[in-house]
Amino acid sequence: MHTSFTGPPAADTHPTPATAEELERHKAAITRLGNELRALVEAAVRTAATPDTLHRVAEGVRHVTGQLTGRRRARADIPEVDEFPAGTRIYSPVTGAGSPLAPPLRVTPTDDGLIGHCTLGIAHEGPPGYGHGGMSAMLLDELMGRACAAAGAPGLTISLQMRYHRPVPLETPLRILARVTGTDHRKSFVTGSITTEADPATDLVTAEGVFVAPDPRRVRALFPGLTADGDPAGG
Ligand SMILES: CCCCCCCCCCCC(=O)SCCNC(=O)CCNC(=O)[C@H](O)C(C)(C)COP(=O)(O)OP(=O)(O)OC[C@H]1O[C@@H](n2cnc3c(N)ncnc32)[C@H](O)[C@@H]1OP(=O)(O)O
Q1: Of 59, 103, 118, 167, which has the fewest beta carbons less than 10 angstroms from its beta carbon?
Q2: What family is this (predicted)?
């Protein structure tokens, strides 16, 4: 089990979860906080509250933030609830239930790749009422990278070619697909697309990417939180 937190224990924290049940409890708590944070972010970018109210809320948020800064994981640590690189990434800005940045994208396998489902909010806006192009790239980069991992060749993006055919509507259920189309040594070639759930025949965004499984001699340096066999470090 990976011990992901460092620094002195604080009085308001609990010991690192060790059992599967405790890990599930920890995941549920992280997810609950993520849900509340996403609601806060969406409310913050939508509100028409007065400056006085915004100042008052900002004070409250500052107080809340102060409750989470006592005990932190180090930058490259892999959270113990994660299954890196192919499974749960609980703080991923794309799929992470615990990240206020993530829609979050829910990923399931298909016959030949992966499918993701999410709905973008006003916090992800580019053109008024539509998704930011960088969000589309982030959704596709993540799902295409996960498709490589699901195919047994986890890798990092070395190129991502985006094509924006039509704007991506906000507050509309989306369907994202990713599929590995070929491999060449450590390289995987991957395609992806974004459509709405309601009209899966109309591509809004498509992408072609190349992902490279890092040279095994470089993996340790790139990801110090992993052991040589690819499992999270820490016993
Ligand atoms: C455990 C996994 C966890 C995987 C964890 C997955 C998390 C998914 C996250 C979502 C996806 C991301 O955001 S990924 C983050 C964005 N991407 C990155 O930061 C990657 C930055 N790039 C790198 O660090 C490096 O290029 C690596 C590690 C990917 C590859 O380095 P390497 O292992 O030393 O490999 P190297 O021998 O140089 O290259 C192998 C082949 O790929 C080609 N190649 C390498 N880099 C490039 C490049 N930038 N542009 C063009 N081609 C390139 C080389 O020419 C060579 O082709 P040939 O001569 O054999 O033909």
Answers
A1: 59
A2: Belongs to the THEM4/THEM5 thioesterase family.
Residues 154, 148: Cα–Cα separation, whole Å: 5
Distance 187 CA to ligand 1 centre (A): 8
CATH number, domain with residue 151:
3.10.129.10
Residue 92 forms part of a structural domain: no
Domain assignment of residue 163, yes or no = yes
Per-residue model confidence as pLDDT tens digits over 167-216 = 999 999 999 999 999 999 999 999 999 999 999 999 999 999 999 999 98
In the block, tokens 């609980």 appear at 90
Q: Kindly report the pTM of this predicted structure.
A: 0.89
Cα 2 to averaged position of ligand 1 atoms, centre (Å): 26
Instruction: Give residue 223 CA to ligand 1 midpoint distance, Å.
Output: 13
Q: Hey, what are 173's tokens?
A: 């259920």
SS3 102: coil
Residue 148 lies in a domain: yes
